[in-house]
Each structure stands twice: as structure tokens, then as C-alpha cells.
Amino acid sequence: MAETIVPRPQAGQVVSEPGHRMVDPAALRVRAGQLAELEEARLRAGTPGSQRMHERAVRSMTSGVPSSYQAREPWPIYLTHGEGSRVWDVDGTEYADFHNGYGSMVQGHAHPAIVRAVRERIGLGSHFAMPTEDSLVVSEELARRFGLPQWRYVNSGSEATMDAIRIARGVTGRDTIIKIFGSYHGHHDYVMVSIGTPYADIGPAEHMNSLGYGAGIPQVVIDLTVPVPFNDASAMERRIEELDAQGRLPACVIMEAAMMNLGVVLPEPGYLQAVREITARYGIVLIFDEVKTGLCVAPGGATERFGVRPDMVTLAKALGGGLPSGAVGATAEIMEVVASDRVKQVGTFNGNPLTMAAARASLLEVLTAPAYDHLDRLNDRLIGGCDAILARHGIPGYTVGISSKGCVNFTDAPIRDYTSFMAHQVAELPELAWLYNANRGVLMAPGREEEWTLSVRHTDADVDRYLECLDRLAHDLVAVAV
User: For an engineered disulfide with 304, which of 74, 213, 298, 400 has Cβ 3.0 to 4.6 Å away?
Assistant: First the structure.
């Protein structure tokens, strides 16, 4: 597809092209509903094998899926295999994979270096619950990349953030924690707070509401987690001052340096530096949750990309090259509570040999400097192409991204935090975009909150396919909506 080049907007600037008026969002919503019915029928007709597998799966696996985030009505797409930037479903349909396991597969599927490392390792034994050399090599490389000298392993992002919070509490002797409203940090109780909240329940920036995400979370736990808005250091400081006056100075602030579950929301200039200064002044442990950004946006993740070093970093997803993995990195002073056994950081499968072999191959052979150059180039091209399409068709929105990550925000105003996301996102369009993509051979993470993830094995042809889908969506929306 030939690209139309338009001047790139600043991050958060809704794009438009001279001579093209912006289509009314209300008209887009109506048209999106009409198109969604057609595209849903097309998807169902094209996935009879997934339908049959789902009918079998629900008899033994709750909702027919291993995790609630994999569920989709009336049935999900069941996959068989992947290679490079492509995956195939049980009906034999090939997709360019921009889902990439919720951002885990920045290496691409079945990368030869990782396949070789795991094959060699499994013949030597798959698990010991004892350390191996690979675990040492991985910790040395992570220390080099992130500038934090001490590391421990876990098996998922949820475990990583859970352990990091416990360690911070052990260091400080405090119970209260602060998180960013709307950020997802895994599925343990202390962070299943103030995410996925209706707009009316958010509360003002100065005193946002602590709300449990689903049933089963004790209110006493919810009350220990205090949410604050993203990109507002002053609001964070005022909340800390209020908590301090109540005798509840927080143990930690846990946050993503760039919010990655509202699409992508980048930190505004000076914001992270201000948060670093505030937390240091109050003796609060600053945790960067890099489960989504770590190893995906730079060799040293968002910590390197934005030039602000926290006290602790949590990793998972991309670390294991497709195997369950996670890690917590910190300063030596903080990790002393683990070394002295004051805080128990344990797990039978921590540092599993297969995972460590895959992680070592990924770090040393796959996620190299040229790989990040490749990701940056493709992502810049993808962002520019999406913005050109939105501008040409008069679709309200803009594109934002960083290295392997990015998204189209269908919105009539900039997104800078959860409140603005809920207030301004045209919610029907991401759902429709997912359907358009799936029916045209592009697999995306579902929902209005998820972004694309490129892999080192994506090509310009994959980018072209994505842009062609967006162009078709925009054309069909505008054809009637105007």
C-alpha cells in the first residue's frame, strides 16, 4: 500500500489533514455498530474449527480458556502454532501476529536461538530447584542493562510485583502502597484495585477512589492501596502528604513509567523525574513495573529509555522468550532484607533451567542493538502510516508508540491518564478494529486498552498488512458516517 506522508503530530495531538473535516464521533459510533455486526458474522463463519474446539473445551476448562483474559464471545480463536511474525489457527488461517502473547514475544515465535537453547537444556534436565550457570549469566546481564545490581527470579509478572511490594514493605516497615489509577500490575489482591473502573466511580484527582477489581478481595486490603492519577506529580505529592499526616506514609509507589494497558500513555516531560524526587524525599520505595516495557522498548527498558532509575524494577513477559518468567531487580540496600531472610522471597520454579536458558539466549543473541534499531524503524513507520490514514479519512484520533509498542487512540482529545481515557475514547472503534484485523489476517490483543507488540522478526510486509486493514476500516466508517 502506498503511504501518504503527512506532518507527524506531537504525542497526544489529534490528527487532521487540510481539506478533510473530522467525522463526528457520534456518527462513527452508529456506523461502528453496523459494521461490527457484519464483521462478527464474518469471523464466526471463518472459525468453525474454533467453535468446535470451544464446545469441547467448556466441558472441562472454565469458559473454555486457561485465563479469563483469553475468553471471547461466542468463542475465542484457538491457535496451533507460530513461526517468526506469523501464527495459525485451528482452521488453518494465517495471521500477522501483533498480539504476541500480550506483549511477551518480542523475539518472535520459535526463534532459532531460543529453540536451540531450550532443546539443549531439556536434554540435561528440566528442573532441579537448584541454581544453574544460566541464572547467573541472566542476572549479570540484567544488572548491566538496568543499573540495579541485585536480582531474584519468579514465574510471572503478578509474582514479580507481589514480591516487590512485600520487599518494599519489609524495608520500610509500612503497609500502605500507592499505585496509578487504571494501571494493571497483575492479579494479586494488593494491585487488583482501581482498574477497569466506570468513569463515574473514579473520583477527583486529589482523592481517587480505592475500588476492588472483581469479587474476592478483602476491603481491608483494598483500603491499603491508594490510587493517584498518572502524569500528575503534584497530585501524588499531595496524597502522600495527606497519608503522612494520618500516620500512613506509604511503603512504595508502584507504577509503569509509561502506562501500557490504556493503549500507550507516555509520561509527560519532567513527570518521572518529579516522581523520583518526591519518593526519594519521603523515603518511599519507587518500583517501576516493567513487565510490559522491560526489554521491549530498549535494552534496559523504560528505565533506560526515560533516563530515570527507580529503586526496584519488575520484569516478566518478554524475559523468558515465551517461557513463564519474571524477575525483581533492586539496589543492594533493598535486597539486603532478602539476603538476610527478613523477607521471604521463594518459589520452587524460580530460576527454572529451561526459562533461564531461553532468557540467556534471548538477551545475548536476540535482543541486541541491531534488533532494537529494527523495532524502532518499523514502529516509526507504523505510527506515521496510521496517523496518515486517520488524517486522510478524518477519523478523530492519533497514534502513539515506543519501540516495539504502540496503538491507535480513537479519541477526540489527548489521553494522559485513566480519567481522560474513559472520558474521550470512542470505545466502539477499538472493538471494531480488532474484528477488521482478525478477518483480514492480523491478530491483535483484544479490548480497547491493549496495544500492538512488534517482534524482531516482523517485516515491512507485516506493517503494510496492518496499515491496509486500518485503511479499509477508516474507508468503510467514513463511507456512510459522513
Answer: 298
pLDDT of residue 209: 95
Angle (nearest 5°) at CA 295 between 310 and 166? 45
State the pLDDT at residue 25.
Answer: 84
- Predicted local distance difference test score (pLDDT) of residue 210: 97
Look at the block and give the residue holding cell 541472566.
138
pLDDT at site 379: 98
User: Which residue type occupies 336?
Assistant: E
Helices and strands in the chain: count of H runs, count of E runs: 16, 14
DSSP for 349-387, please give it: TTT-HHHHHHHHHIIIIIS-HHHHHHHHHHHHHHHHHHH
Work out the number of other CB atoms within 10 angstroms of the CB of residue 436: 24
- The residues pairing with 408 across neighbouring beta strands, listed in sequence order, are 399
Decide if 154 contacts 160 (C-beta within 8 A).
yes
- Domains along the sequence of the chain with CATH: 25-106+369-481 (3.90.1150.10), 112-366 (3.40.640.10)
Residues 191, 287: Cα–Cα separation, whole Å? 13
Q: For residue 235, what are the contacts with CB-CB under 8 A and spacing of at least 6?
A: 205, 206, 228, 229
pLDDT value, residue 161: 98
**479 to 32, 205, 393, 428: CA distances (angstroms):** 12, 40, 9, 17
* In contact, 102 and 92? CB cutoff 8 Å: no
The pLDDT value recorded for residue 13 is 58
> Which residue type does 197 have?
T
Q: What is the mean pLDDT of each run of 10 residues along the chain (482 residues)?
A: 36 53 85 95 98 98 95 96 98 98 97 98 97 98 98 98 98 98 96 94 94 96 98 98 98 97 95 98 98 97 98 98 97 98 97 98 98 98 97 95 96 93 90 96 86 97 98 91 48
Cα of first residue to Cα of last residue in the chain, in angstroms, is 24
3-state secondary structure of 147: coil
What cell was used for 51? 467453535
DSSP string for residues in 186-224: -SSGGGSBS-S--GGGS--GGG----BSSSS--HHHHHT
Using the 8-state DSSP alphabet, how is residue 28 labeled? H
DSSP 74: S
Cell readout for 173 is: 516497615
Roughly what angle, to the nearest 10 degrees, separates helices 460-481 and 369-393? 20
303 vs 320: CA distance, rounded Å: 19
